[in-house]
Amino acid sequence: MTAATDRARIFELVALLLTYPDDELLDAAGELRAAAARVTDETVRGQLGEFLDWLLTVSPIEAQRHYVRTFDLRRRSGLYLTYYLHGDTRKRGMALLMLKQRYRAHGLRLTGGELPDLLPVVLEFAAAVGPGDGEAPLRQHRKGLELLRSALAESGSPYRLLLEAVCAVLPDLTDADRAAVAALAVDGPPVETVGLDSLGLGPDLHALAPYPACSPSEAPR
């Protein structure tokens, strides 16, 4: 398995690259390439380099439109990990609370209304805290990561390279995991909207369903 220090580098860089490609991110081309070059895992370094070749070659508006289409407008490729396993149910609310508690135990406080299951946040936590507690959320939501990776690969998005990089340095899926992923891919996440206001999530409650209603063309996918 890839060394912990290399995994931390990978998680930190992918967390940054999964944020909206604004001018600040795109203007940091040199720093981003330098960070990718420091990754010692040759396969992952190649994946990160290929993604950066795309991101830093297309026009900013094209990169930004692709990001919105990929992560904000499609149910199947959102960045909120608990949705894949729990859908809009009370179990998802409990999963969010458990993540918050884990972060607080390590001194992390979320700001700006961020949900704790947002993939860049989970990756930043893994990079900062390291093996054990830090990487536990990634292992716990391995199925969601695999579903997201698969959706990005199916759509042909360059962002698939980032998910492939993350999945490559995590423990391999077991046969049971693969069966569960296949079942989730067919059935989709569970649906339940009652009782969520009793979970004490406060201002986060509105974000339990972060994805807009899909269009008629998206519905069968």
Show the helix and strand layout.
Layout: H1 4-17, H2 23-26, H3 29-37, H4 42-55, H5 60-72, H6 81-86, H7 90-105, H8 119-129, H9 136-140, H10 142-155, H11 160-168, H12 175-187
Tell me what you see in this structure:
The protein has 221 residues and is mainly alpha-helical. 58% of the residues lie in helices and 0% in strands. The protein has twelve helices and no strands. It has helices spanning 4-17, 23-26, 29-37, 42-55, 60-72, 81-86, 90-105, 119-129, 136-140, 142-155, 160-168, 175-187. Helix 1 runs antiparallel to helix 11 (160-168), helix 3 runs antiparallel to helix 4 and helix 4 runs antiparallel to helix 11 (160-168). The longest helix is centred in the middle third of the chain and has 16 residues, at 90-105. It is globular and about 45 Å long. The relative contact order is 0.16. Mean pLDDT is 84; it is low at 193-221.
Helicity, in percent?
55-70%
- The portion of residues forming beta strands comes to under 5%
Low-pLDDT segments: 193-221
Number of strands: 0
The H-and-E topology, N to C, reads as HHHHHHHHHHHH
Strand count, sense and barrel status of the largest sheet are: none
Indicate the multimeric state: single chain
Q: How far is it from the N-terminal to the C-terminal residue, by CA?
A: 34 Å
- Mean pLDDT across the residues is 84
| Structural class based on helices, strands and sheet pairing | mainly alpha
Radius of gyration from the CA trace? 17 Å
